[in-house]
Amino acid sequence: MCKSASPGWVVRTKTNFSRNSPVFLLGKCYHFKSEGMDKSASGCTVAAMSTEMVLSNVNQFREDFISRIWLTYRREFPQLKGCTLTTDCGWGCTLRTGQMLLAQSLLLHFLGRDWIWPDALHMVTLESELFKTKPSTMSDSDAGFTFLPPLERPQQDMSEQLDSSSNERQTLKLNPVSTTSKDETLHRKIISWLADNPAATFGMHKLIDLGENSGKRAGDWYGPSVVAHILRRAVEDAVEPELQGITVYVAQDCTVYIADVIEKYLQGVGSGSPTSSDRRAVLILIPVRLGGEKVNPEYKEIVKGILSLEFCVGIIGGKPKQSFYFVGFQDDSLIYMDPHYCQSFVDVSTKDFPLESYHCPSPKKMSFSKMDPSCTIGFYSHNEYDFEKIIDEVSKVLNSLSSKEKYPLFTFSKGHARDYDIDKLCTPKTDSAVQHSETQRRKAERLSNEEFVLL
Fold first, then answer.
1. Is 338 a catalytic site residue?
2. How far apart are CA 57 and CA 61, in angstroms?
3. Residues forming beta bridges with residue 74, ordered by sequence position
4. Which of 88, 119, 338, 431 is catalytic?
5. Tens digits of per-residue pLDDT, 401-415?
6. DSSP letters of 349-406?
7. Could you confirm whether 340 is annotated as catalytic?
8. Confidence class for position 168, pLDDT limits 50, 70, 90
9. 330 by DSSP, 3-state: which?
10. What is the pLDDT of residues 321-379, one digit of tens each?
11. Among residues 178, 223, 126, 154, which one has the least CA distance to residue 435?
12. Distance between CA atoms of 304 and 368, rounded to whole angstroms?
């Protein structure tokens, strides 16, 4: 649980990126250094071209990052059922990170990994003051780039700035409007499914209702494993025709049962020989624990290896008492999206509702050593062929390191869970990896009351 302070303030913590190391973002790799920037390069023209190339690479990374859907605390939304709460500020961060992972899965499902939100280019322009190159007087090993998160601004202000540059908008778009209108409709539809109103399929109201099956209520602490099962039930309950092509599998006891996942692809398919259009894509969620009280450093390279895979849709994790959505890494630092910004409610039923608050202009980084050991890893698998590749590539990551650990982080096992009598041992209502005893929970609540986060 997170303790929030005044919702009008944000800590502008600098995020530094080295230009000497690759940056991985949800399976894509970016380089902030070109050969022309080496000390062997000579001439103003070469240096200028090199700087332009690097800035282009940085902007490609930023456009990719900004295009991911950002879900944060919201205030003044319709009252949650069974209580008087109209905000999730201070307690809903794990649900928000779960929403972000699901949002990325939906983007992959409907738009593909290469999709870029056209207005991401404008957020890069509008927030250009947040991107700095370190002085040239610094050594090459220290040189890099700094990002600053934005202070919260009224959504109307940002919208006015975007609307005032309509000519520039048309110039900077990657594709003609005619080819992106369908994509933009899907983009808006995905956000509307995650909106903060009782009717939204994956909104906070729906997730809170489903959490009751796990003994959770609005205002409670939600673990990554509990959120995984809530997401599974939310997708299963979805009635929208577009969402019938995707389902969710949650691993049990750190084991992915291959036959159960294959069964998910055929879920809902009638008799006869199913066509590829009848089959469902599967979002595979794997709750794991990266150690005991603290994260085990032996798992660092495994987590980095997983985040570098094209099928990975991120990790629901964080640090103690604060949940983050991990989307990549540079060196030994994790890159994440932070839900701890309390923004105003957006009515998605209005035509052309503002999208800017659903896209984060600047990434954050955190040392792997600060990561909480409890997390849920996500993979999106479009079909059985993708699943076979996931098994192969993930297994290589899990087995490639000379880890001192006797047991892998998780495993793939042939057959069904019922073949191993696992179903009797695991139910969606428990969170064995993260479940606190009553004493531990009271202690955590007491500590959370002493902690605050400037919002």
1. yes
2. 6
3. 343
4. 338
5. 645 556 789 999 999
6. TSTT---GGGS-SS-EEEEGGGS-SEEEEEEEESSHHHHHHHHHHHHHHHHSS--S-S
7. yes
8. very low
9. strand
10. 899 999 999 999 999 999 999 999 999 999 899 999 999 988 999 999 999 999 999 99
11. 223
12. 10
Question: Out of 2, 64, 88, 93, which one is annotated catalytic?
Answer: 93
CB atoms within 10 A of CB 53: 17
- Provide the β-strand partners of residue 325: 316, 337
Contact 175, 118 (CB under 8 A): yes
- Candidates 292, 320, 295; CA nearest to 451 is 320
SS3 200: coil
Phi-psi region of 322 (alpha: psi -120 to 50; beta: other; left: phi over 0): beta
Contact 198, 205 (CB under 8 A): yes
Of residues 5 and 282, more confidently modeled:
282
Catalytic residue among 122, 205, 229, 340: 340
3-state secondary structure of 243: helix
Helices (H), 155-279: 155-163, 166-172, 177-193, 204-211, 224-237, 258-265
Structure tokens at 416: 């069904």
Secondary structure class of 24 (helix, strand, coil): strand
Q: Which amino acid is at 97?
A: T
Name residue 247's beta-bridge partners: 282
Cβ atoms of 449 and 4 closer than 8 Å: no
Distances (CA, A) of 265 to 80, 259, 339, 385, 389: 34, 10, 32, 11, 15
- Give the span between the Cα atoms of 408 and 398, in whole angstroms: 7
pTM: 0.80
What residue type is 145 in one-letter code? Answer: F
> Reduced to 3 states, what is the DSSP secondary structure of residue 17?
strand
Q: Residue 213 and residue 235: Cα distance in Å, rounded?
A: 15
Please check whether residue 306 is in contact with residue 409, taking contact to mean a CB–CB distance below 8 angstroms: no
